[in-house]
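>> received
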Amino acid sequence: MDAIINDAKEKMEKAISALQDDLAKLRTGRASLVMLDGIKVDYYGTMTPLNQVATLAVPEPRLITVQPWEATLIPAIERAIEKANIGLNPTNDGKIVRLPVPQLTEDRRKEIVKSLKNIAEEKRVSVRQARRDANDVLKQQQKNSEITEDDLKRGQDQVQKTTDDAIAKIDDIVVRKEKDIMTV
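>> returned
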């Protein structure tokens, strides 16, 4: 029975971890290198992650700098950033690409919060699915006389407590992120 509960807990933790990864990519009006994750640059015919062809930095709260290891890569880096459609307009001085992070409008903040809530709901559904799977296994074990009815009830209570804890963590993460997005 412990293995079933631990398996459910592990699935729920993965959902929370995935939520944190997804939320890290949401733009909050502050510069973050996570915004550039997934951008690939054409490096001599090979699509290479941006962080493997340049030094990335956040020298100011609203600025990201990209310093390519080879100056010839600047046009390819600018094209890759524009193509990624992340809302940043690259400028360069021949040595370094600057990405100013514009202030978010109130409407844009509300759109981001809306997508934040959609992402969170997907993760809550994943947590509930893990609960359902664990309860199904417990019921099957009770049906096969592998555990008693008391064990079934105890197991379901533990699974529910684990589910409640995971949902509470998700809600807490969402509230903090929403506050981060909505503060100017």
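>> The helical segments are 2-24, 74-84, 106-143, 149-182.
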